[in-house]
Inverse folding.
């Protein structure tokens, strides 16, 4: 072995599906110090290989999945993989994260990073073990849903090792622009359409198994960080008990209380208390919950394993419930759970699905769409009977579902009303109302992947639930720096392969000791901050190369024009506030007025530009 | 004056209630309201931290606005105010 830093195998597996070729390539040691792992390392490797002008659904698109040096240790929640690709929904960087058991098993097969490009002539499955990697025909698996695919491929063992499966369902095969890639049946690389990119490459699944260990350089330093992290997770109420008892849906009443629960495609935020109670975390715990569970090495255990009459599945979580629920004026938890099960089985992002359906319902309410356009289906707000059916038609691109599969922006544009699509960069806004907080609004505006709960979208927790960290709801002064810090923490959690929810118990310090302990490299909090700034700049550079401008860092005009009542006052996000927040955010990042990382910044962060 | 208090998440079990109307003398502050609610050691511990400050694990809102930065325990109360008590939580 070369003297590669501990915690990494130092190996990239590069797969070209067009040529049927698999290569093992050394990882660049300077890249691991500068980009750490996960999201950062995947972005770097992606940037080096992709033509930013490529059609995301063409063979030219490149998928990169990266693990982190913490995977393979016992660090809490360290089991997450990160996938980067050009998104067919946004046309910009797609950067998606997933729990479950696949990523640790992939790392145990002896690689840090998987790169997939090209397009197979017929559907394939990729098989990776410590001994070999090969491209196999998918055969009858093509067309199967996620659960059946996983059952078929995870069966048996490879040389005594458990097999772990990452795959797409029919939605990905049909290139639905918000199709997910699924792990362990119900965990999702959910946002931005990774599943459609897999479908366009004729890639059905990647099966892995392994036994390679992750070495720890300085065990004492690592252990001091890990022990502190586990201790703090047992102290904070959210990670100690709330998320286990109520799941993420425990939030719904709180979010309603602070006037941030969207309603009817973000037309207002008005709900009856008894309606909200029908979809609360407590109602779910009483009526549907069979058991709570955690992802790989996770003591928080927010997963909801539920049952609706004789059907079992997972979910619904907060985002899913609100987007398919109140945002569609639906408060029927069983119907939402069944639609959620269908999304998991067919491989569909629940947030973009809910947001697209809410947009359709508003078009229907306004008479822009009629039953003639929707194959006779009555799509008025509040009609919970069509939820699961619309999931199936969207995943199958059947009839009107073919238009739903394009996402709300393209659909609303086809009916000449793009302003009714509640999206940023063509990606559906998740389940927190932006008019209720400048920080929330700015988080959506500045996410590199379009509006996303995981990229600035949890600003709500800063604004209201952070205790000492609380910042005013409408502060032009404090929001830009707060959002920059929130994006940076998110980049680092994604690059460490750990869960956002650890942030409710602690911030960077324990991670700095764990990452430094495992690798023997200096990943102090100051170095980690620099890594985050570097990754943010690199993601931005890709987006600019792909055609994005500052004008894309904005909100749908509804949020500037139509007021809602927040804490007793009418509120919009005025256009001048949008401009001011955006330019102050750029300044906080060291980017120019147009949001371009300045040449001096690129140099000081040691970012290699693309070779022309 | 009368103050409406809403309990969320595990505070419902702790206070055996979803909602209570509390009568207080005019001019009372949040400290008095919470003092009258926290009539057991367990309740007191969940709401107050060290040295009679608010616990770092709790969020209290008055009419939809967190009190932490607007008076804290000394926040003034008026007839008809709605106080919500819930744990520090986040995410979705």
């Amino acid at each position: 072995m070369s003297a590669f830093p501990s915690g990494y195998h130092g190996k990239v597996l590069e797969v070209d599906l067009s040529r049927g070729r698999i290569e093992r390539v050394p990882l660049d040691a300077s890249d691991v110090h500068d980009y750490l792992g996960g999201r950062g390392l995947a972005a770097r490797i992606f940037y080096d290989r992709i033509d930013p002008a490529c059609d995301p659904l063409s063979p030219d698109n490149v998928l990169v999945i990266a693990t982190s040096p913490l995977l393979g240790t016992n660090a809490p929640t360290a089991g997450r993989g990160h996938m980067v690709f050009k998104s067919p929904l946004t046309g910009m960087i797609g950067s998606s994260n997933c729990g479950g058991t696949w990523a640790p098993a992939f790392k145990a097969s002896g690689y840090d990073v998987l790169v997939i490009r090209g397009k197979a002539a017929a559907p394939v499955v990729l098989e990776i073990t410590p001994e070999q990697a090969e491209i196999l025909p998918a055969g009858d698996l093509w067309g199967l849903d996620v659960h059946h695919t996983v059952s078929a491929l995870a069966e048996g063992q490879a040389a005594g090792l458990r097999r772990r499966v990452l795959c797409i369902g029919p939605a990905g095969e049909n290139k639905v622009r918000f199709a997910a890639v699924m792990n362990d049946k119900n965990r999702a690389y959910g946002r931005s359409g990774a599943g459609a990119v897999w479908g366009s490459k004729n890639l059905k699944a990647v099966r892995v198994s392994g036994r390679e260990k992750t070495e720890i350089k300085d065990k004492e330093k690592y252990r001091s960080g890990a022990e502190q992290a586990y201790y703090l997770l047992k102290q904070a109420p959210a990670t100690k008990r709330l998320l286990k008892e109520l799941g993420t849906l425990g939030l719904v009443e709180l979010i309603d209380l602070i006037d941030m629960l969207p309603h009817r495609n973000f037309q207002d935020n008005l709900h009856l208390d008894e309606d909200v109670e029908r979809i609360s975390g407590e109602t779910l715990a009483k009526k549907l919950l069979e058991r709570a569970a955690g992802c790989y090495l996770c003591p928080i255990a927010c997963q909801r394993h539920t049952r609706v009459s004789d059907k079992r599945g997972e979910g619904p979580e907060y985002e899913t419930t609100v987007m398919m629920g109140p945002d569609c004026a639906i408060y029927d938890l069983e119907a939402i759970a069944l639609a959620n099960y269908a999304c998991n089985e067919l491989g569909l992002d629940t947030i973009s699905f809910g947001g697209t359906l809410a947009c359709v319902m508003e078009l229907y309410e306004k008479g822009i769409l009629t039953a003639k356009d929707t194959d006779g289906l009555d799509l008025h707000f509040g009609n919970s009977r069509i939820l699961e059916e619309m999931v199936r038609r969207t995943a199958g691109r059947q009839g009107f579902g073919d238009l739903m599969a394009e996402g709300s922006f393209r659909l609303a544009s086809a009916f000449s009303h793009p302003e009714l699509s509640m999206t940023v960069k063509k990606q559906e806004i998740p389940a927190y109302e932006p008019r209720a907080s400048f920080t929330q609004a700015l988080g959506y505006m500045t996410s590199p992947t379009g509006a996303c709960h995981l990229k600035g979208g949890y600003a709500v927790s800063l604004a209201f639930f952070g205790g000492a960290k609380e910042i005013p709801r409408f502060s032009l002064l404090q929001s830009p720096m707060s959002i920059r810090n929130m994006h940076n923490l998110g980049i680092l959690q994604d690059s460490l392969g750990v869960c956002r929810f650890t942030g409710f118990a602690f911030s960077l310090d324990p991670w700095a000791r764990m990452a430094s302990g495992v690798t023997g490299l200096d990943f102090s909090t100051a170095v980690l901050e620099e890594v985050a700034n570097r990754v943010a700049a690199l993601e931005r550079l890709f987006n600019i190369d792909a055609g994005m401008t500052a004008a894309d860092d904005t909100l749908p005009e509804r949020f500037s024009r139509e007021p809602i009542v927040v804490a007793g006052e009418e509120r919009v996000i005025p256009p001048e506030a949008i401009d001011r927040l955006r330019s102050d955010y750029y300044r906080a990042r060291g980017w120019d007025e147009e949001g371009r990382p300045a040449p001096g910044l690129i140099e000081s962060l040691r970012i290699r530009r693309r070779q022309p | 004056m009368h103050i409406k208090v809403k309990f969320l998440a595990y505070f419902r079990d702790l206070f055996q209630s979803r909602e209570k109307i509390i009568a207080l003398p005019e001019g009372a502050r949040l400290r008095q309201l919470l003092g009258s609610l926290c009539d057991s050691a367990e309740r007191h511990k969940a709401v107050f931290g060290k040295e009679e400050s608010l616990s770092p694990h709790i969020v209290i809102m008055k009419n939809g606005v967190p009190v932490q930065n607007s008076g804290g325990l000394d926040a003034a109360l008026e007839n008809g105010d709605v106080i919500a008590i819930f744990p520090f939580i986040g995410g979705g």
